[in-house]
Amino acid sequence: MDRRAFLQAVAAAPIAGLPHLARADVRPRVVVIGGGFGGGTAAKYLRLWDPGIEVLLIERQPRFISCPMSNLVLSGDRRLDDNVFDYSGLERHGVVRVQAEVDAIDADKREVRTADGARIRYDRLVLSPGIDFRWGDIQGLDAADADREIPHAWKAGPQTELLRRQLAAMPDGGVYLLSIPKSPYRCPPGPYERISLIASYFKREKPRSKVLVVDANPEIVSKKGLFTQAWADLYPGLIEYVPGNAIVEVDVRRKTARTDFDGFRADVLNIVPPHGAGTIAHRAGVVSVDGRWAGVDFQTYESLVVPGIHVLGDATSAGPAPKSAHTANNQAKIAASAIIALLRGKPPTAVPVSANTCYSFVSPEEAVHIAAVYRFDPAKKTLVTAEGTLGVSKERNTLEAGYTYAWAENIWRDTLF
Amino acid sequence: MNLRSRTPHARRWPTALMLIAGLTVSAVPSARADDVNPNAGRDLAASCAACHGTNGRAVGGFPVLAGKDREALIAALRGFRDGTHKASVMHQHAKGYTEAEAALVADYFSRQSPTKP
User: Which fold has domain B39-117?
Assistant: First the structure.
């Protein structure tokens, strides 16, 4: 069945128009929007834990491309293809995949509308849209510029390869500029890993070059001591770090960028704009925190403002938990368990517990981690960092470089296969 | 350099810790709703899967937890928590769970097949 025929079949299914209560004899249906770490994991675990639930995964891309491990592509230490997976593993779990763009969500009718014109009913919706960029925050730069000339490469894909090509073509003695948006942003240690790996590439092949970092934050956001030490030991003179400076304007043609205080010129400009929840989260009406993120109930990950929609991953305001693949994967299982309980008329798990481990390379050979456990506090209805769990590696080491690969292999499988 | 070959070696649970655990396991009394939730162990263990594989069937060198002895797993978690079992990251994670939760997690993994796909 081709996509359009399938969508029409889904939309025309006899269950579609009936009220929720009249459907007791029919399998409950969960629609998952977004096939990243959050959505993939949710779709898989819903089927794993309750095969009586029909799960539809709507994702506009044909394949999954992992952001974790993509900084290695920029330094020439990995091929992007090694980060790419198809969705056949989820289909083997009985997840029905729909490749489509979602245009709108009608929470009152419990219906998703795709760009193809299909209307898909749901009993519960999982929304895991990731991030979108706030182009209006930087004058002179837009999404098309990023695709063509000034990549953010903050979603792994064609821009990762564009940035790699630009770095490879840059002459020795050139300047690579990375701008980091103000926190919260996707993957707190990610920019500092990127700086480290690109510095390692320059050290190896273009030793007169420079990594210029313009950070909107007052200091390194994650694993500060470990990154600072690694940069001093491994890349002396290669990295210039400018904190407390947000890029507000870019001249694409002249390759210059400006903050309120300074102007910069670079051979390769890698501007990562501030971001917020993916566009569809705004359209669904679930964005309730700072006009940028979705507020959720940490027991179920259901939106605090729109009933029936569970929001996962980077799009959420996740309390103390970072915006990471690991967080999204863990949130997805809490949501899957809660959704099954709610659909089956049972109480959700009272005190869900999630964890995060983020490994970062400081060179292709050495890595460091940050990790913590997060517990739902039922009395305060908040997420709290479990005492004694938040911490980082004592020092950079080769053992954890191996662990970084093992982590990636396992989380990809746990999410997609 | 091929980093893929440098994946971590599985850690062996110390025999001494397994023996001690067999003697000292005790449930922490609690009136929480999760005590009667049949999925409490499954849900707690699901978090571990990000590194240790779905239902504890890890690949790439992280320890496989599926099918491991329940008491050995409890002992290992306790060892990580009190610092007698050295680790790169598990000493942090283990502190996030109560003794009763650790037992639920251990119980769940001990009942999983290490080979089922």
Answer: Cytochrome Bc1 Complex; Chain D, domain 2 (1.10.760)
Of A349, A374, A386, the CB nearest to B39: A349
Q: How many other C-beta atoms lie within 10 A of the C-beta of residue B43? A: 26
A353 and B44 within 8 Å at the Cβ level: the answer is: yes
Tell me the per-residue pLDDT of A286-313, one tens digit each, with 9 for 90 and over.
999 999 999 999 999 999 999 999 999 9
The reply to whether A114 and A201 lie within a common domain is no
Q: Is B35 on the interface with A (CB under 8 A)?
A: no
ipTM greater than 0.85: yes
Rounded (to 5) percent helix, strand, coil in chain A = 30, 25, 40
**Which residues of chain B lie closer than 8 angstroms to A406, CB-CB?**
7-8, 51, 58-62
- Which CATH number belongs to the domain containing residue A61 in this structure? 3.50.50.60
Number of Cβ pairs < 8 A linking chain A and chain B? 132
Identify all chain A residues contacting B8, using CB atoms and an 8 Å cutoff: 399, 402-403, 406
**Both A104 and A146 in a single domain?**
no
User: Is the residue at A415 inside a domain?
Assistant: no
pLDDT tens-place values along chain A, 417 residues long? 445 545 554 554 444 434 444 445 589 999 999 999 999 999 999 999 999 999 999 999 999 999 999 999 999 999 999 999 999 999 999 999 999 999 999 999 999 999 999 999 999 999 999 999 999 999 999 999 999 999 999 999 999 999 999 999 999 999 999 999 999 999 999 999 999 999 999 999 999 999 999 999 999 999 999 999 999 999 999 999 999 999 999 999 999 999 999 999 999 999 999 999 999 999 999 999 999 999 999 999 999 999 999 999 999 999 999 999 999 999 999 999 999 999 999 999 999 999 999 999 999 999 999 999 999 999 999 999 999 999 999 999 999 999 999 999 999 999 999
Cα B24 → chain centroid: 17
Question: CB–CB of B88/A399 below 8 Å?
Answer: yes
B4 in A contact zone (CB under 8 Å): yes
Q: Does residue A27 sit within a domain?
A: yes
A396 contacts on B by Cβ (under 8 Å) = none
Task: Tell me the chain A residues in contact with residue B43 when contact means C-beta distances shorter than 8 Å.
Answer: 333-334, 337, 349, 352
pTM: 0.90
Helices within B33-111 (DSSP H only):
40-52, 70-82, 90-93, 99-110
Domain endpoint, select from A273, A292, A326: A273
The domain segmentation of chain B, as residue ranges, is 39-117
* Residues forming beta bridges with residue A372, ordered by sequence position: A356
Tell if the CB–CB gap between B46 and A390 is shorter than 8 Å: no
Residues contacting A86, CB < 8 A, separation 6+: A62, A63, A64
Task: Identify all chain B residues contacting A407, using CB atoms and an 8 Å cutoff.
Answer: 50-51, 62
A193 shares a domain with A171 = yes
How many whole angstroms from its chain centre is CA A174? 30
**Dist CA A184 CA A199 (whole Å):** 24
Query: What is the extent of the structural domain holding A71?
Result: 3-132+276-348
Same-domain pairing of A325 and A242: no
Is the Cβ pair B88, A337 closer than 8 Å? no
Helix/strand/coil for A28: coil
Same domain, yes or no, for A292 and A248? no
Closest Cα in chain B to A37: B50
